[in-house]
């Protein structure tokens, strides 16, 4: 069963800060970390939206801003196409098993406006690759069934860091279960598989016997037919063995 870890908490509790610290340490552990983070976009200290950035490549797109025409969450418009350009290839790689662990910041109202992202996330939750994600507090109860949820506050952030890192390392140390692939198979008995040459020889011998029987039956039929022909048209010798006819008896009388 896959092991998933979700970090939730109130706004400004430090979820993203904690997540970035965990990413940094996992990279130091030489783990292949894939995923994305959603940093704020600010102008003159004022938040104007959110970006989405690939952890491995640093490729960046727009998650939401004030000027797009996508669906609204609070005062922001979600840029679904820009978000999907970054997020979907990452989840495709994750579902293909190309990462040791997948990190998502965050699973929330904005991200779930993308139906494609929601579907890819559902697929990822069934994979053996561990998932580490920050989670909007509104969804905490929904994800308890598929992973362990940690509530972060400013007062327990350091303790949560150590606890989550320990559990993630433990999950990564476990061997992954190999999926069984079912293919059409031919069931062969031990006797047949141990002596394939004898089996072929026996089959060849049986074929030869069958051919001989067929030839004998043909020969027998031929002989029977020949005997019938002889009965219709007797040979000279057979004719001579017959009883003498009337002419022959008259000739014999004259000889006397």
Index terms:
alpha/beta; Rossmann fold; 46% helix
Outline:
The chain is an alpha/beta fold. It is built from 9 helices and 10 strands.
* Gross morphology: globular
* Number of DSSP E strands: 10
Q: Total number of helical segments?
A: 9
Largest sheet: 10 strands, mixed
- Taking all Cα atoms into account, the compactness measure Rg is 45 Å
Question: Overview of this structure, please?
Answer:
With 256 residues, the protein is an alpha/beta fold. It has helices at residues 15-28, 80-95, 115-125, 140-143, 157-173, 190-194, 196-232, 236-240, 246-255; strands at 4-8, 33-37, 40-43, 46-54, 60-65, 72-73, 76-78, 101-107, 131-135, 148-151. Strands 1, 2, 3, 4, 5, 6, 7, 8, 9 and 10 form a 10-stranded mixed β-sheet that branches. Helix 2 packs parallel to helix 3. The model is unreliable at 178-200 and 239-243 (pLDDT under 50).
Give a topology summary.
Blueprint: E1 4-8, H1 15-28, E2 33-37, E3 40-43, E4 46-54, E5 60-65, E6 72-73, E7 76-78, H2 80-95, E8 101-107, H3 115-125, E9 131-135, H4 140-143, E10 148-151, H5 157-173, H6 190-194, H7 196-232, H8 236-240, H9 246-255
Parallel strand pairs: 1-9, 1-10, 2-8, 8-9
Antiparallel strand pairs: 2-4, 3-4, 4-5, 5-7, 6-7
């Amino acid at each position: 069963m896959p092991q998933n870890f979700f970090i939730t908490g109130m706004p400004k509790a430090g979820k993203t800060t904690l997540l970035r610290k965990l990413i940094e340490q996992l990279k130091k552990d030489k783990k292949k970390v894939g995923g994305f983070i959603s940093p704020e976009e600010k102008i003159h200290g004022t938040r104007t939206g959110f970006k989405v950035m690939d952890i491995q490549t640093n490729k960046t797109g727009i998650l939401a801003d004030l000027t797009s025409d996508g669906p609204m969450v609070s005062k922001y418009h979600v840029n679904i196409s820009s978000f999907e350009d970054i997020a979907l290839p990452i989840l495709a790689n994750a579902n293909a098993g190309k990462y040791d662990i997948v990190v998502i910041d965050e699973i929330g109202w904005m991200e779930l406006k993308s139906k494609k992202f929601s579907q890819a996330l559902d697929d990822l939750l069934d994979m053996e690759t561990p998932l580490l994600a920050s989670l909007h507090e509104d969804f905490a109860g929904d994800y308890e069934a598929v992973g362990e949820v940690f509530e972060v506050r400013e007062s327990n952030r350091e303790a949560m860091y150590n606890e989550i890192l320990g559990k993630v390392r433990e999950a990564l140390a476990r061997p992954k279960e190999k999926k069984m692939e079912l293919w059409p198979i031919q069931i062969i008995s031990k006797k047949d598989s141990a002596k394939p040459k004898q089996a072929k020889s026996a089959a060849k011998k049986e074929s030869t016997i069958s051919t001989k029987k067929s030839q004998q039956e043909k020969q027998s039929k031929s002989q029977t037919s020949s005997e019938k022909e002889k009965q219709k048209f007797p040979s000279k010798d057979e004719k001579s063995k017959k009883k003498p006819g009337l002419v022959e008896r008259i000739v014999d009388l004259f000889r006397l």
